[in-house]
Design goal:
The complex is a heterodimer. Chain A is an alpha/beta fold. Chain A folds into 3 domains: about 35-130, Alpha-helical ferredoxin (Fumarate Reductase Iron-sulfur Protein, Chain B, domain 2); about 155-290, Rossmann fold (3-Layer(aba) Sandwich); about 300-425, Rossmann fold (3-Layer(aba) Sandwich), CATH 3.40.50. Chain A has 20 helices and 10 strands. Chain A has a 4-stranded parallel beta sheet. A 4-stranded parallel beta sheet of chain A has the order 8-7-9-10, with helices on both faces. In chain B, helix 2 (about 65-75) crosses helix 5 (about 190-195) and helix 3 (about 95-105) packs across helix 4. In chain B, the strands form 3 sheets. A 9-stranded mixed beta sheet of chain B has the order 11-10-9-12-8-1-6-7-13, sandwiched between helices. Chain B is α/β, with parallel strands linked by helices. Chain B has helices spanning about 35-50, 65-75, 95-105, 125-135, 190-195, 235-245; strands at about 1-5, 10, 20, 25, 30-35, 55-60, 80-85, 110-115, 140-150, 150-155, 165-170, 170-175, 200-205. The chains are: A alpha/beta, B alpha/beta.
Chain lengths: ~425, ~250
C-alpha cells in the first residue's frame, strides 16, 4: 500500500553558485537553512497526548531503533520512521503501520530517549478501536473469539481440558482435587486447543509427574490471559478476562503459578499486580531449571540433534530469562546447542507478539516476508536440525515458516517436547 | 425510519453437535448469534446512519442468555433491544417466526432485516414467514441495501455469480446475505458500558404454531467411505460418472 501522505520536499537546489563558484550537488544543503515549517507537530502531539503514549514525543531521530526493529528487516518500519511519518502527515490511528509492531521491545532496549513502543502501540491502537477506525479482520475475529469463547481460537470452553485424556498421565483438576497444591499450572489457550500445543502440554504433564511435583490445572475454569489482545489495543477485553482470571486464581489454594507461555507470564507477573494480583508466577523453563539435579537422571535417552534456541521476546527481553531454557537443553544428552546470530537480548521476534499472532495475512501485505520466515531461515543457516522454542505461539508459526522457506529438514519442537523425548526415548 | 432486526440465538456448530434423544443436547452446546444476523445488524445500522431513524433488535431468548447478544448489538449502534421470553431451545423456525412477527407488529416497522438463513434454518424460512405474518413483501439473498424515502434499492445475489438490483417500496422484509460493509467491531469496554446502562424490553411469546414436523431420530452423519478421485480427460471422467450413476441405479 502506498503511503497516504506526501514525502517532505527536497531542499537542494539544482544549481548553486557561491562567490562565483558552482557548488551544485547534494551537499549544497549546508548553504541554505533547513525548512522546518513544512513539518507539523500536530500528528505527533495527537499520539503523545494519549495516556501511556507520551514518550512518542521524546524521539530525536537517532534511528538506533530502526537497526534492531524486526519489522524493518522485512519491510520499511521502526519507531523513528513512525515519528518521521507523523511529522510529514501520517495519522498513525488510520495507517496500516499501526498494526505492524509486535511489541518485541528491541527498540526500547537501545533507545537513548526511552521511547516505549510497548506502551505507545497499545494506547494508539486502543484509541483507533474506540474511534471505530480500521481494525484488521483477523484480529477482530480473535478479539470476538476471546470475548465469546474465552480463547482466541474460538474453541468451546467446555473442551478446554479435553486434551488431558490423551496425556498418558493423570492430570488433576484443582476443583475436583479439593485440597491445596504446590503448583497451579496455567496451561494456556494454544497448549489446550492447538494440536501441536497439546503435544507440549502433554509433555509438560509427563515431566511434572515424573518429577513428583504436586500440581493441578484449572481445567474448564481456565480462560485466556488476553495479554496479546491488550497489546493489540483491546484493553476492555483484557480487563474483563483479568477480573475473571484473578477471581478464579484466588478461589483455590496454591503456592506458585507455573505458566506454559511467556505472554501469560508477562500478564500475570507484570500487569496483574495493577489489578491487585501479586502472587508468585514463573515460566516453565525457570521452574524446571530449579529441578535440574532431579531432572538429569530422568533424561536417559540421547537426543542426537543440533539444536538452536529461539528466545521468545516475552520470556527474554520482557522478563529477562535467557539461561534457564539453555540449561534445560544442555541437560539433554546428545544435544549440540548452537546460537543464531541474533540471540538473547537481541533475539529476533517471531512476529506473534502484540497481536501479530492473529494478523499474519494483514502483515504479509505490508512486509516482504513473515518475521517467522526470516527467523526460520536464520535457524536453518546455523546448520541446526531442530529449532527449539519455549512459547506456545511459536511452534505453529515456525512449522509453517520452515515449510514455506524450504527448510523442512529443521524440526520445530518445544523444549518440553525435547525433554520428554529424552525421558521416554521416542 | 423504524428499522427492525430479527435475530436468532442458535447452537454453535464450531464443535461436534451433541445429540440427546431426538434433538440437539441443548445443555451441552454453546449458543451463538446466527452469523447472518451479524450481517443484518450491520446493514440495519448502516441504513440508520445513512437516513436516520431507530434500530430495534428483536430476538427469542431460547436459553436465557440473549442479553449478551443484545448488548453487543446495542454497542454496535442499535437503539432498542427486545427479547421474547420463549425459553425453549427446541422452538423451531415456524414457532420463532410467529413469535418474532407478533413482537414486531407493534413496532410498526418501515423495514425489517433478518439473516437470510441460519445453521438451524438452512432453507431460510424465518424471513419469508415473518413477511407473510406481517403481510409485507420479502426479498432474500441481499448483499446491500440503500433507502430513500419510501423505496429501498437492494442488491440480490443469484447463483453463478449473478446479481440484480431491485427497487422495492417499503415496508418490506429483507433477508440479508451480507451487509454492504463487513460488520464493525464493538470494543469490549463499550459493550460492558452498555451492559450496565441498557434496558432490555421483555415481551411474552404470543401465538403458538407448529411446522407439523416431528423428529424421529437425530444422529451425527456416519462416515462410511472415502471419496474416489476419477482421473483422465473430461470426456473420460464424464463417461465414468455416467457409468457409476447407472451402476447405482441413479440414471
Amino acid at each position: 500500500m502506498a503511503p497516504k501522505f506526501e514525502k517532505a520536499k527536497a531542499i537542494e537546489k539544482e544549481h548553486v553558485v557561491v562567490d562565483g563558484i558552482d557548488v551544485s550537488g547534494h551537499w549544497n544543503r549546508m548553504f541554505e537553512q533547513r525548512v522546518i515549517t513544512e513539518y507539523t507537530p500536530e500528528l505527533i502531539e495527537k499520539i503523545a497526548d494519549l495516556p501511556n503514549a507520551e514518550s512518542f514525543a521524546n524521539c530525536y531521530q537517532c534511528a538506533k531503533c530502526v537497526a534492531v526493529c524486526p519489522v524493518d528487516v522485512v519491510g520499511n518500519y521502526g519507531p523513528r520512521k513512525l515519528y518521521r511519518y507523523a511529522q510529514t502527515g501520517m495519522d498513525l490511528t488510520e495507517a496500516p503501520e499501526l498494526w505492524l509492531c509486535t511489541t518485541c521491545a528491541n527498540c526500547l532496549r537501545v533507545c537513548p530517549k526511552e521511547v516505549n513502543m510497548v506502551k505507545i502501540m497499545p494506547a494508539v491502537r486502543e484509541q483507533a478501536i474506540l474511534e471505530g477506525k480500521f481494525v484488521p479482520a483477523e484480529l477482530q475475529q480473535a478479539f470476538e473469539n476471546t470475548a465469546k469463547s474465552g480463547n482466541p481460537l474460538g474453541q468451546p470452553q467446555r473442551k478446554r481440558d479435553a486434551w488431558i485424556q490423551n496425556a498418558g498421565v493423570p492430570i488433576p483438576i484443582i476443583k475436583d482435587l479439593g485440597r491445596p497444591v504446590d503448583v497451579l499450572w496455567y496451561v494456556g489457550s494454544y497448549p489446550s486447543y492447538h494440536p501441536r500445543g497439546i503435544d507440549a502440554a502433554s509433555a509438560a504433564a509427563r515431566i511434572f509427574t515424573a518429577l513428583g511435583i504436586d500440581f493441578a490445572i484449572l481445567g474448564k475454569e481456565e480462560k485466556d490471559d488476553a495479554d496479546s489482545q491488550r497489546l493489540a489495543g483491546e484493553k476492555g477485553l483484557f480487563e474483563m478476562m483479568t477480573e475473571y482470571n484473578i477471581e478464579t486464581f484466588n478461589k483455590y489454594e496454591w503456592k506458585e503459578l507455573v505458566v506454559t507461555g511467556p505472554h501469560e507470564l508477562n500478564a500475570f507477573k507484570n500487569v496483574y499486580p495493577k489489578y491487585g494480583f501479586e502472587r508468585p508466577v514463573v515460566h516453565y523453563t525457570t521452574f524446571l531449571a530449579r529441578y535440574l539435579d532431579q531432572l538429569k537422571p530422568l533424561l536417559k535417552h540421547p537426543v542426537n540433534k543440533k539444536i538452536t534456541y529461539h528466545d521468545p521476546c516475552y520470556l527474554g527481553r520482557h522478563n529477562g530469562e535467557y539461561e534457564a531454557p539453555r540449561k534445560l537443553l544442555e541437560a539433554i544428552p546428545g544435544v549440540e546447542l548452537v546460537e543464531m546470530g541474533r540471540n538473547r537480548e537481541n533475539g529476533y521476534c517471531c512476529g506473534g507478539g502484540g497481536g501479530g499472532m492473529w494478523m499474519d495475512s494483514f502483515t504479509a501485505k505490508h512486509t516482504t516476508m513473515r518475521l517467522s520466515e526470516k527467523r526460520a531461515m536464520e535457524a536453518a543457516s546455523t546448520g541446526a536440525n531442530v529449532l527449539a522454542v519455549a512459547c506456545p505461539f511459536e511452534v505453529s508459526r515456525f512449522e509453517d515458516a520452515v515449510k514455506s522457506t524450504g527448510n523442512e529438514h529443521v524440526g520445530v519442537l518445544d523444549i518440553l517436547e525435547l525433554l520428554d523425548k529424552s525421558m521416554r526415548g521416542e | 425510519m423504524n428499522i427492525v432486526v430479527a435475530i436468532k440465538h442458535i447452537p454453535s456448530i464450531a464443535d461436534d453437535l451433541p445429540v440427546k434423544g431426538n434433538n440437539v443436547d441443548f445443555d451441552s452446546v454453546d449458543f451463538v448469534l446466527n452469523e447472518f444476523d451479524e450481517q443484518s445488524i450491520e446493514q440495519a445500522v448502516l441504513v440508520k446512519e445513512a437516513v436516520g431513524g431507530t434500530v430495534t433488535v428483536v430476538g427469542v431468548d431460547v436459553i436465557g442468555e440473549l442479553d449478551n447478544v443484545l448488548h453487543l448489538a446495542l454497542a454496535k449502534g442499535a437503539d432498542k433491544a427486545v427479547k421474547i421470553t420463549g425459553d425453549d431451545p427446541a422452538a423451531d423456525s415456524h414457532q420463532q417466526a410467529k413469535w418474532l412477527a407478533e413482537a414486531i407488529k407493534g413496532l410498526s416497522p418501515n423495514i425489517v432485516f433478518a439473516g437470510v438463513q441460519a445453521s438451524n434454518d438452512l432453507d431460510g424460512q424465518i424471513g419469508p414467514m415473518i413477511a407473510a405474518y406481517l403481510d409485507m413483501p420479502y426479498i432474500g439473498g441481499v448483499s446491500s441495501v440503500e433507502v430513500s424515502d419510501h423505496t429501498a434499492t437492494v442488491n440480490k445475489e443469484f447463483a453463478g455469480g449473478f446479481g440484480a438490483k431491485y427497487s422495492v417500496s417499503l415496508p418490506m422484509v429483507v433477508g440479508v446475505q451480507a451487509a454492504s460493509k463487513p460488520p464493525r467491531y464493538a470494543p469490549i469496554s463499550k459493550v460492558r458500558q452498555v451492559a450496565q446502562m441498557a434496558t432490555i424490553e421483555k415481551v411474552a411469546p404470543s401465538g403458538g404454531v407448529s411446522s407439523g414436523l416431528s423428529f424421529k431420530k437425530m444422529a451425527p452423519p456416519v462416515v462410511t467411505g472415502h471419496a474416489e478421485m476419477i482421473g483422465g480427460s473430461s470426456k473420460e471422467v464424464a463417461a465414468k460418472i455416467v457409468e457409476l450413476l447407472k451402476s447405482k441405479g441413479l440414471a
